[in-house]
Design a protein that fits this description.
With about 650 residues, the chain is α+β, with helices and mostly antiparallel strands. It is about 60% helix and about 15% strand. The chain is built from 21 helices and 16 strands. The protein has a six-stranded antiparallel sheet with strand order 3-2-1-6-5-4, with helices on both faces. A five-stranded antiparallel sheet has the order 8-7-11-10-9, sandwiched between helices. The longest helix has about 60 residues.
Length: about 650
């Protein structure tokens, strides 16, 4: 503010200007400017007045500051008392502390009664993670001293203060704090923590600042206690509410379980099937019920849900639907981790849960429930139904296994020892619908590695049933006998497609025709099995063929031709075979992959899962054994052909 002095009585003017400065709350510099600009003869009597005015001004400023602090403290107390969540109370405390005292940071430490120390719980303005995670032993550091003694402490220069044990200086130095004051958070006589305000520059804390922080700490302690008590009461209310809901749900579950048990028991006693199970489940649980086999095909579907409708039409669950995802998660795992899974739908999509139908560790299929809302009672009911369904399926399996053993015995007698009791064999075959006086098509099926054999046999039985034929397991393969004259190659391909779709893995089939008579069936069986072996050796998994379609590999069905092929293989790649046998090497497998990858070393290394340097070493070894010409022209053809023939001849 500028001071203009008009030409009039100078003493009166100076006094008026001094009063105006006091009234307007001018800065101290303006009082000093008034002294400097007044006439020299007025300075002596004006200086004491200016000093008195500055003193009055300071008192007024102090009073206004205290009023502001009290108002802010009152407002803070009101805010804290309105908070009910501890996670909201603690940040509010440190934020208000920092704002009221105008410090760089504020933070709060709470006592850990179990560990016997104190730790940083909430901060405002703190930058370093190390400080936020700091812990202090009781009595250590400024915070530990306050927590132990329940007395406020402050220091204008933390690092040069000898009153406390300096145990966390690195943490404090990393944050850059110098001036720190801490006051206890007390509930009665019990200290629960320490409230701090700190600056990153050296400065003393006045008594009124300490008193202000103490007042705030007292309000904060009460707010913490209120929030803690409120949370305890809320937890108690929640526990009571939850217990009541559990009791009600349990009562409903018992009633539903009793009704469902009665219905399912009646189904078992009266010889019901999967459709009856699905229908009764849908009536008790509501929604749509789907029964699926281990391959995920729908055996029964009841309900008006679009998922159930599409499942009835397609025979499988719609891909991506909650029901399909639930079945996949419930049954697409190891035997140890299979369990009921629930998938919650979104928007207009219904939710679904699925539970595996288990017999020990074996999955017999799954049950799925599709509904808008699902609860634990529904899941338990579905799991009980799965147990009853497992019993029904095991009963059906017992009957099927009896039929399976009978078919296996017929095939064993027919193909293994047809002349032991030919007349009895004809009578037993006739009981199974097999007329040995008719021509037949003989097919041999196998899944690589011998897996899924029972599933393959079941699917082959269904295939043979349409043509009034016979199917069963014999010596590790599934054999199918179809009466009448069929194209063996086309029939083999049709059966391969059917079995592959049923199993979900490639199933290979070899087939040939047999004239009437048991001996002809035995010979045709041998040819079909040999054809199957050639297909697998040629990596034609999932295909079906007859011996006539094998081209040069058909020579393998002639014993003389096989002997000549053995000699051809020895001439072409004998050194490789000897090397692999002596060293348990991988040269033959490496060259097969090399030719399959069209001579690309990079692709071959990836196919074999070896480093390219390892592949180079193997190729160099082959060159040393066969000579450099093996990779070119006719020689490459001879080597490749010998490798393929060796694979066929070595197949079981």
């Amino acid at each position: 503010m500028s001071i203009d002095l008009p030409p009039r009585s100078l003493g009166a003017d100076s006094a008026r200007r001094l009063l105006r400065l006091l009234r307007e709350g001018a800065a101290p510099e303006e009082y000093r400017a008034l002294l400097e600009r007044c006439p020299a003869e007025e300075v002596a009597w004006l200086r004491p007045l200016v000093e008195d005015a500055l003193h009055v001004r300071a008192q007024l400023e102090e009073r206004r500051r205290r009023e502001d602090e009290l108002a802010a403290l009152y407002e803070t107390a009101g805010d804290l008392s309105s908070l009910r969540e501890l996670e909201a109370v603690l940040p509010a405390i440190v934020r208000r502390s920092r704002g009221l005292l105008g410090t760089d940071v504020a933070y709060l430490m709470l006592n850990d009664t179990q560990r016997g120390d104190t730790y940083v719980r909430t901060t405002d303005g703190i930058r370093t993670d190390a400080f936020k995670r700091a812990r202090l032993a009781m009595g250590a550091g400024l915070g530990g001293l306050v927590a132990k003694t329940a007395v406020p402490y402050d220091t204008p220069d933390y690092f040069n203060d000898p009153r406390f044990e300096h145990t966390v200086d690195d943490v404090v130095r990393g944050e850059g704090l110098i001036a720190i004051q801490g006051v206890p958070l007390k509930l009665g006589e019990k200290v629960i923590g320490v409230l701090f305000a700190a600056n990153r520059s050296a400065r003393p804390f006045s008594d009124h600042e300490v008193a202000l922080l103490v007042s705030l700490a007292n309000h904060a302690a009460i707010a913490i206690e209120n929030a803690t008590l409120f949370q305890e009461v809320q937890r108690a209310v929640d526990d009571l509410t939850e217990a009541n809901a559990v009791i009600q749900a349990h009562s409903a579950s018992v009633e539903q379980a009793a009704s469902l048990h009665e219905r399912l028991t009646s189904i078992v006693l009266h010889g019901g099937d999967m459709a009856d199970v699905a229908q009764n489940l849908a009536e008790v649980l509501g929604g749509s019920i789907l029964v699926l086999d281990p391959a995920g095909r729908v055996s029964a579907a009841v309900g008006a849900d679009p998922v159930a409708e599409q499942a009835r039409q397609d025979g499988v669950l719609p891909p991506g639907s909650p029901a399909a995802r639930a079945v996949h998660e419930a049954c697409g795992l190891s035997a140890e981790s299979r369990r009921t899974r629930r998938i919650t739908g979104s928007g207009t999509h219904a939710s679904a849960c699925a539970t595996p139908i288990m017999a020990g560790t074996e999955a017999l299929g799954s049950l799925a429930l599709v509904r808008d809302r699902l609860d634990a009672c529904d899941i338990r009911s579905l799991e009980r139904a799965a147990q009853v369904t497992a019993l029904m399926l095991l009963s059906e399996r017992s009957v099927a296994e009896a039929e399976h053993r009978l078919r296996g015995e017929i095939l064993e007698d027919l193909l293994g020892a047809p002349h032991r009791d030919l007349e009895g064999l004809r009578r037993r075959a006739a009981l199974m619908g097999l007329d040995l006086g008719r021509p037949h098509t003989v097919l041999a099926a196998r899944c690589r590695g011998g897996g899924h054999r029972r599933v393959v046999a079941d699917a082959a039985t269904a295939f043979a049933g349409h043509a009034k034929g016979l199917a069963g397991e014999y010596r590790g393969d599934v054999i199918v006998l179809l009466p009448g004259e069929h194209d063996p190659a086309a029939t083999a391909r049709s059966l391969a497609d059917h079995l592959t779709a049923a199993v979900g893995a490639p199933v290979t089939v070899g087939g040939t025709s047999a004239d009437p008579g048991a001996d002809c069936l035995v010979e045709a069986h041998r040819d079909a099995v040999q054809c199957l072996g050639v297909l697998l050796a040629l990596d034609r998994d999932g295909e079906g063929a007859s011996p006539d379609e094998l081209g040069i590999y058909g020579l393998l069905f002639n014993q003389a031709g096989r002997e000549e092929l053995h000699r051809f293989v020895r001439r072409a790649i004998g050194p490789l075979l000897d090397y692999d046998e002596r060293r348990s090497g991988e040269l033959v497998r490496t060259l097969l992959a090399y030719f399959a990858c069209d001579g690309s070393l990079t692709r071959t290394a990836a196919e074999l899962f070896v480093h390219v340097n390892t592949l180079y070493q193997r190729i160099d070894r082959v060159t040393a054994l066969l000579g450099p010409q093996w990779r070119h022209g006719d020689h490459a053809l001879q080597v490749h052909l010998a490798l393929k023939v060796h694979s066929v001849l070595s197949s079981p």
